[in-house]
Amino acid sequence: MEDLLNYVIKVGGQLGSSYIEARYQRDHQSQIVLKNGVAEVSADIVEKGISIRLLYKGSLGFAYVNSLDRESLRKAVSTAFSLAKSASRLSQNIRMSEEKLVSASDIVKPRVKYENVDTADKIELLK
Predict the structure, then answer these.
(1) Helix, strand, coil percentages for the chain (3-state, nearest 5)
(2) Burial readout 93-113 (b: 16 or more C-beta within 10 A, e: otherwise)
(3) What pLDDT score does 124 carry?
(4) Which DSSP state fits 104?
(5) For the whole model, what pTM was predicted?
(6) How far apart are CA 21 and CA 11, in angstroms?
(7) Which helix (H) or strand (E) holds 5?
(8) Domains in the chain, please, with CATH?
(9) In what order do the strands lie in the sheet with 38-56?
(10) In angstroms, how far is CA 116 from the centroid of its own chain?
(11) What is the pLDDT along the chain (127 residues), one digit of tens a residue?
C-alpha cells in the first residue's frame, strides 16, 4: 500500500503541487436489518480508498478514489490538482505549518472481535 501512497505523492509533485498528502483508509461494517424482530437482510461490507489533499499556488484541492490502481490514482491526483488550480485565481493564500514528516497507522482494537460473535447473538442484541 505504501508504494501506492508514494506514487500519489510523486504524481502530485510532478504536477507542481507545493504540498501533497495521501491517506489510505479501510472500513469494515456489518449490517443486519430486522423486520418485526426477524432478520430480513444482512451484509458485510468492506470499503477502502485513498484521499488526496494538495496545495497549488496557495489553493487546496481534494479528491478521493476507491479504485486502487495507478491509473485511477493518477486521475484522482489530476482532479485534486485541477480543483486547486481553478481555485488559485479566487482564493486567499493557504499555507501548511512547517512540521516534521510523519507516518502513522491507527488500528482500533475492540474488546470482543465482531466476527467472533454469533449472528444469532447479534440479532438478539438488536431486538
Answers:
(1) 35, 35, 30
(2) ebeeeeeeeeeeeeeeeeeee
(3) 81
(4) -
(5) 0.74
(6) 11
(7) helix 2-15
(8) 2-126 (3.30.2290.10)
(9) 19-35, 38-56, 59-65
(10) 27
(11) 999 999 999 999 999 999 999 999 999 888 888 888 888 888 889 999 999 999 999 999 999 999 999 999 999 999 999 999 998 888 678 888 888 877 777 888 888 887 788 888 888 877 7
Strand runs labelled E in the chain: 19-35, 38-56, 59-65
Amino acid at the residue 121 = D
Rounded to the nearest 10 degrees, the angle between the axes of helix 70-87 and helix 2-15 is: 40
The C-alpha atoms of residue 94 and residue 112 are separated, in whole angstroms, by: 44
Q: Which three cell numbers stand for residue 82?
A: 485541477
Give residue 117's identity as a one-letter amino acid code.
V
The residue with cell 486547486 is: 84
